[in-house]
Amino acid sequence: MSEKKRLAAEKAVELVQDGMKVGLGTGSTAYFAIEAIGRLVKDGYKILAVPTSLASEKQARELGIPLATLEEAGTLDITIDGADEVDGNLDLIKGMGGALLREKIVAYSTRVQVIVVDDSKIVSKLGTKFPLPVEVVPFAHARTKTYLEELGCRAELRGGGTPFITDNGNHIYHLHFERGIKDPYELQNKLKEIPGVVETGLFLNMAKKVIVASDPGIWVMERV
Question: Domain 2-121+204-213 - what CATH class?
Answer without folding.
Answer: alpha beta
